[in-house]
């Protein structure tokens, strides 16, 4: 009888071990199912009143208001400084998919620029369209140097600083392609390079009057004016490309929104809600492995003067472990730090001592919030 009991015990252990191995290898979720049957740790009372950021309207002596809710493809908001007491904010307000056939699909975007004064009041707006296509009729618009610049259609607008919505054309140089290579080189090295603030290569493919072999050009900003120099040839084209990259003169979007500093955003608590497993890593050269992680809620604090903004963020994932070979440096604290970093990366902000408000962007929900001091009513 005793021998049978021992045998049954050994068989049971072997069967359970085999079930465990099959479960882990195939990520069947048997273990996670049983783990999820156990009750979770009760949420500490200090975090019970935390709401989703979209539900917070006031905290301490501050009000928080939704400035704009972005669309499905609003990759991020843009903030540019106009002056000490004015900024502009760009948001995508509408997304329209297109299908031109032959697999040529994408999206066109309606954009709105908001001009805000030091109190956060919207003074004016301007609208324009952009597209995922680099051959779009809308061209390629960037916000740079307090201007709206269309790099493809070669115009700019000074609306941010003076309210003028007129589209001003770049000044064309050598459009008739009559300059010699020597004259082009001298003009480029003596006039363009020493004086330009921004510089970028430009292929004039939209202008069919320019021969294909003469379309290599450059665009640049100097003396408060935008220029395009046509027919520069490959040598100048290559040099401009290098200068643009190495000297940080590229004509790209500016954005003052930045990550919130670590000392300004804290994950105060993580509530585990569900245990999960999944399979990954299966390729022709690699064997699959199973990884385990928690799904939960992060409780977050952001200090403002003498107040603190409290809110929670759902659907936050915390790695537990995997059956893949682990580094000796992988620890629970590493996983917790990675989780906290991932939470912090979901938020951006802009603050300026000359402004009476702060902007916070929730990058997941594509929402931009404005935070101001409460108005004191006598």
UniProtKB/TrEMBL annotation:
It comes from the Bacteria. This is Uncharacterized protein. The lineage of its organism: Bacteria, Pseudomonadati, Bacteroidota, Flavobacteriia, Flavobacteriales.
């Amino acid at each position: 009888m005793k021998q049978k009991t021992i045998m049954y015990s050994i068989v049971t252990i072997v069967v359970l071990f085999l079930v465990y191995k099959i479960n882990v290898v195939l990520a069947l979720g048997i273990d996670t199912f049983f783990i999820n049957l156990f009750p979770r740790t009760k949420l500490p009372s200090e975090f019970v009143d935390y709401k989703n950021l979209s539900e917070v309207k006031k905290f301490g002596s501050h009000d928080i208001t939704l400035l704009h809710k972005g669309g499905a493809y609003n990759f991020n908001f843009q903030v540019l400084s106009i002056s000490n007491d004015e900024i502009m904010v760009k948001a995508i307000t509408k997304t329209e998919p297109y299908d031109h056939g032959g697999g040529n699909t994408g999206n066109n975007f309606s954009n709105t620029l908001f001009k805000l004064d030091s109190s956060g009041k919207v003074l004016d707006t301007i609208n324009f369209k952009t597209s995922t296509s680099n051959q779009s009729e809308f061209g390629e618009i960037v916000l740079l140097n307090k201007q709206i610049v269309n790099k493809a259609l070669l115009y700019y607008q000074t609306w941010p600083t003076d309210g003028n919505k007129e589209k001003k054309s770049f000044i064309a140089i050598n459009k008739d392609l009559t300059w010699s290579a020597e004259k082009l080189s001298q003009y480029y090295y003596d006039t363009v390079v020493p004086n330009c603030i921004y510089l970028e290569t430009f292929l004039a493919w939209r202008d069919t009057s320019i021969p294909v072999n003469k379309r290599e050009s450059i665009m640049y900003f100097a003396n408060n004016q935008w220029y395009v120099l046509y027919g520069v040839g490959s040598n100048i084209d290559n040099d401009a490309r290098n200068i643009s990259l190495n000297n940080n003169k590229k004509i790209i979007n500016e954005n003052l929104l930045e990550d919130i500093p670590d000392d300004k955003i804290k994950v105060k608590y993580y509530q585990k809600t569900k245990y999960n497993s999944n399979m990954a890593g299966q390729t022709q050269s690699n064997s699959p492995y199973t990884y385990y992680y928690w799904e939960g809620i992060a409780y977050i604090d952001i200090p403002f003067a003498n107040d603190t903004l409290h809110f929670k963020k759902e659907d936050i994932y915390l790695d537990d472990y995997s059956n893949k070979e682990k580094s000796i440096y992988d620890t629970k604290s590493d996983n917790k730090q990675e989780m906290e970093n991932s939470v912090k990366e979901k938020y951006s902000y802009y603050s300026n001592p000359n402004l009476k408000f702060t902007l916070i962007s929730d990058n997941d929900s594509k929402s931009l919030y404005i935070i101001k001091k409460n108005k004191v009513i006598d």
